[in-house]
Task: structure prediction
Amino acid sequence: MSRRTSWSRGSRSLFTLYLPVAPFVFFALFPLYFMLVTSLKKNAELYNVNAAPFLIRQGVTLGHYELLSKDTMFWSWFVNSVLVSVAATVISVVIGILAAYPLARLRFPGADSFGVAIFITYLVPPSLLFLPLSTVVNRLGLSDTLWALIVTYPTFLVPFCTWLLMGYFRTVPKEIEECAMLDGCNRFQTLLRILLPVAVPGVICAALFAFTLSWNEFLYSLVFVSPAELKTMTVGVFSELIRGDIYYWGGLMAGACIGSLPIVIAYVFFLDYYVSGLTAGAVK
Amino acid sequence: MVNRRHFLRVTAGGAAGVLVAGGAPAIAQTRELTFLTIASFVPETDKELKRQFEDWGAKNKVKVRLDIIAHLQLVTKKASEVQARSGHDLTALGPGLGDADLYFDHLVDLNDVAADIAPKNGGWLNQNDYLIRGKWKLLPWWMPPFPMAVRTDLLEQIGEKNPDTWEDWLRVGKKGKAIGHPFGTAMGHSGDANVTLLSIMWSYGASYVAKDGKTIAINSPQTRQAMEFVKRLYTEAMDPEVVAWDDASNNRCLNAGKCIAIHNPISAYESAKRDKVLVPGTQKEIADVIDHVNTPRGPVDRRTTTGYWCVGIWNFAKNVDLAKDFLRYHFQPDNQARWVEAGHGFNMPFLTNLTKHPVYKSDKQYRYIPEVAKVSVPPSWPGPTTAASQQVLDLFIIPDMFAQHATGKMTVDQAIAWAEKEIQEIYAGRKRKF
Result:
């Protein structure tokens, strides 16, 4: 009887959970799988139009990873990407918190329209902004330094973080802050000691998004930084492994595989926070 | 004691000062020359250029920096440097000579440098082609000539020998397609499509603009003939996928052992040789069964074009004289010779003596490159290069015209009328602007 119950439970979750989810998992993981397979194939097999594109039939090679490590400055680019993304994320989240708190909590004339204006700022595409920003970066004397990216990335990260955190802060009951104030906390202490610990999922969610956007950024990195040793991974791999009409597909995919690892790791560690941070505003 | 107001005043004042001054204060001035170029199709070329740049820097006690980016990124990089009026001293320009017109007010005149270089190298190939509004605003640097790359084993299999005309290649393509090895030329939005389809137009006596650079000449019986030929080539000798091809697709098609022939520089052969790619189902290297022959002749002419890669100096460069000095050094015959050798002949300079470089006799694959270079003209031919002619290329008007007819979406008259209107608007718009 109990065996039958357990089987029926198993089959129920198979039909109601795993099978319906399977197409979505396949859809999400397929690009990663294809990247990995391509990065491990020999060039001869990559060129062969008769070969099965999704399987490795002629042996695995690590040659493309070797090419990345030995013939390019891939690991310098990787470190640059980490430095820029972490710095830009920290700056943007801090500014985002400081901007979101008054917009969510304080009553002052124009608070609502200011919030909308911040959201609209986020919608201005970098492809419009890079030309005027290049003048600003040059005048600040930051061209060809990683600071150029650390300073410019917050132009699209801060509006996003502010907007996301505004929504999250509004879900936290005001009353707990008021209690803290009755106990003697000032505004800043309330934010630091009461609101932020409660809003950790929202902050992590904003940080994850900011890190991902910085990590994948291409245009500003291309325009503001030229020296090979200062390039970020997105631009470096593209510059070195696309030579006219020759694409080093194996190397490109090896770079993409390694490049996706930090994002995957970050999301795996913080998945629960991320989901609760995203959905918090939905059921106020 | 630093209070909040004091901190804000100092930091805001400092930032404003930097912005007003137009840059960070110079602590120590050193002579530095920077050069932005594109990743060469043959990596050894970049190494040789770097060696020469560093060698020149050491001799002249100048700190040098060579920055290399993918050619697809150059457009964005140029635009941002001109906007900021800051960046590299020397810059690669192109593909095409159109940058000279587009950035005419931002480039230094190089008349003196061009005049110094020419006599030492037997003169420029077609000097008048490179003068934009009567001035040397850039130096034509190198081009990758477009021969025809062909699989000799397949040619033998279908009983063909030495194809020379476009009609020959149509016949070869038909026979090749019948045995699963079609002809391959891009007809989508790619540089290769522009090159090959313009080559066919000229070979049939057509052109899109007249010599005066004003009269739009695309509506002609010759264009109709060229379009009917391309329709036959597309339907009888090629696969439909060519309308979606990019610049890498024909290389892949040849090296995958599928295409019998492609119209392309020697890059496909070079990469097949480097990667030791095999003919599918055999242990034979595909590079061993590739040959390169002259760009095809048409009923009227044998003419082609290619990417004209150039070099120039921004007029906001910090070291214009040093930049000119390096150009003179790089264009010395010995340095040019070493640089061409490093590129396996892929990067042909626009200098007469360099077309006779020994590298073109070092491998039979390179033997036709000088011949192709002789019949290569700028894409605006017979008209002069202008920003408008560059726009015709950048908007892929010619490939779209051919593709719309070849795929049956438009009749030949409709496709020509569409292209004529587009080109007229481009040329009219530019005339008003300048």
About this structure: Residues 2-61 of chain A form one domain. Strands of chain A lie at 242-243, 246-247.
